[in-house]
Design goal:
Layout (H helix, E strand, L loop, with lengths): L2 H5 L4 H37 L4 H17 L5 H18 L1
Length: 93
């Protein structure tokens, strides 16, 4: 479809949402990806019994909170992941 032809038919607010949607989606994807990486790193540190496990857990919690703030994941999902990380850490130490 011709994007310019479609744009002429839409209201200004709809056009703005069309412009915003891809940018917001990109922010959410980046936040979700960063939180997944941080959780994976924390899990690996806990499993290895590394000294930096506490720091990795803090970084994971921070990344999860940022993902929630940016709309990448639901707040209860972040809370669940943080809880499971803490539980895993407590059983390993």
């Amino acid at each position: 479809m011709n994007r310019l032809a479609d744009m002429a038919k839409k209201k200004r607010s709809a056009l703005k949402r069309i412009r915003q949607a891809p940018r917001r989606a990109e922010v959410k994807v980046l936040a979700r990806s960063a939180s997944r990486t941080a959780v994976k790193t924390a899990r690996a540190a806990i499993e290895a019994g590394a000294e930096g496990a506490a720091d990795a857990m803090r970084a994971a919690a921070s990344a999860l909170d940022k993902a929630v703030k940016r709309g990448g994941i639901h707040k209860n999902a972040a809370a669940r992941k943080k809880s499971r990380l803490a539980k895993r850490s407590a059983t390993k130490s």
